[in-house]
């Protein structure tokens, strides 16, 4: 993070909302994903450093609201890096990222039925020639 830019932005915050998604767990059957554990360690180091920087850059009276979707690793990193400043809750942006609430598969947002896209979709194929022939 560039302190010249970030310090100016973070210095005036009263509330900061952060959505943190942790990497998928390593799975031995994923093709080409042998280094997933290494990626997760890199993510932990990056997230810790980033949160520690944000913690010192924002004003002391600023509220920090964090949505980790109750993922253990992400929650622990936030608790350590920003001790005492965080408030965990579900954020609206987190609903979309984690596919919760209205954005969940059962909520209807991911429904593949987008309705008719042309007049061919409205009527049967055999009726198309009847209605639209010369």
UniProtKB/TrEMBL annotation:
<protein>
    <submittedName>
        <fullName>Uncharacterized protein</fullName>
    </submittedName>
</protein>
